[in-house]
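Lab notebook: predicted structure, single chain.

Context: the supervisor wants predicted structures on file for every construct in the current expression panel, including those that have not yet been purified. This is the next one on the list. No modifications to the sequence; it matches the entry in the shared construct table.
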Amino acid sequence: MAKQQFKAESKRLLEMMINSIYTQREIFLRELISNASDAIDKIYYKALTDDQLVFNQDNYFVKVTADKANRTLTISDTGIGMTKEELENNLGVIAKSGSLAFKKENEAKDGHNIIGQFGVGFYAAFMVADVVTVTSKALGSDEAYKWESEGADGYTIVPCEKDSVGTEIVLQIKQNTEDDQYDEYLDEYRLKAIIKKYSDFIRYPIKMDVKGQRPKEDNAEELEEYTEEQTVNSMVPIWRKNKSELTQEDYDQFYFEKRYGFDKPLKHIHISADGAAVYNAILFIPENTPFDYYTKEYEKGLELYSNGVLIMNKCSDLLPDYFSFVKGMVDSEDLSLNISREMLQHDRQLTLIAKNIKNKIKSQLQSLLKDERDKYEQFYKSFGRQLKFGVYSDYGANKDVLQDLLLFYSSKEKKLVTLDEYVSRMPEDQKYIYYAAGESIERIEKLPQTEMVADKGYEILYFTDDIDEFAIKMIMNYKEKEFKSVSSGDLGIESDANDNAAETEEGGTKELFDSMQSLLTNKVTKVKASKRLKTHPVCLSTEGEVTIEMEKILKAMPNSQDVKADKVLEINVNHEVFQSLKDAYGKDKEKFNLYTQLLYNQALLIEGLPVQDPVEFTNDICKIMV
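Prediction complete. Output recorded below exactly as produced.
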């Protein structure tokens, strides 16, 4: 029979698809198995309205058979089959899907939905095969036909013999090249792995003849090879089962099987949504941070299925960055997909699912925080940093979503607390939410700047993460209370007797402070008497938005700009050191200069800032010892 030509646009599309549309060749098997499943679905539909047709699910399956010797891979099904006209229409015109047309005519009302909306998956076979042969016998027909093609050059359709209803596709697998090993698509273990990866939850059995070894009956010490037919897919996905049927062990096992992580998940979320967005999902909040989580190499996203068929390993559009630690999957039957089945069209459905998932994750985290505090703190230890990055990024656009999930160490409680817990304990006269930033809790506790706030009985939040202050700057205020660093110029605390004494001393020592400031030109913007120090002689405070901790972090960044905090050197005029400073100012200018440099360098060290000249600093210490 003469070879028929594909239509011009179909020929071009076939050439494009074979060479570029699909990112991984292995998905050809997913496409052919999905089509076989569709063909069985069509018989199921007919049985719903045809009393003469009885659908016994045990009689319906897909069979995958590899023949290494002849380099053929066969995918056969017991589905509805195709007539000559259907072979012509469905396989002769690329991107025309018989399944899509069938779906439109027979909208599913019981969960059996047709995958064939994608249309061109069949032609993925030409990525691995030189020749594709399709033999099919339609339900209710006495005739069978064979469709055969070597690719873009065209195809033939001829009558043939076939005993049973259904379709058999034989792929003549390509020979290996230097770059490509096509033999893998004839290997039993590789084929099983591909089926498990993409088609594990197809609702009909996918069978293969699997080889094994067993002791011989007449000699148990010797092994013999045998072959048996096995079903290699699970068929019923866990997410389509009722939650009441499932135990925690079932969810944990699913987590391990899907290799979402090597840890045990802290919590799972099982969603069965039936509204504006129809989908099923199982999400997991992991216990531990993946080794590459805080690197550029980490790839966020959920597995995305359409009717139980995996179409994307990592769908990043389903998760906001601040919840990128969540693992799991989503299965929806109403996604708009392009012809390769691998790229999503950005439609309203996907946006609705993503929004719903975001709200579910937040709700689960709030529940964990409220009811299982220990588990939440365990989670926060691993992923709290990501939540803070979420607050800071996008100019604080997500702060309202995340601020109630943040935890900080409390000076009073000696444990992690929420912002809400802090505010609920604030005395009426307290104006601000006070915080202190440093490398560790131990270092912050020793900071001189905390003295005045602590003496007032006010709680201080300890910021030990480099992102903390940046995130808080984005929040700005919480429940109408502004955040205030203990190193800030104005702490908003009413003056007491000591403060008044400080102001009096400051008035009489203006020239002294001016002289110190002159000596420290370009190092501090001001020298003044301190209202915050009680027992320590000196400290640094800041004016403006950039704090000392922020300066340290920004300087440590690669290619960072030279950002500096406006530093103020504060002197405790009630400390005995100040008396020595005054005496030197009046009697010994050289000693006064020495004391000024020493006090400044002391303040730097307290803040964890580098001393500009360590040798000079040690020499200065030696000078006061002799």
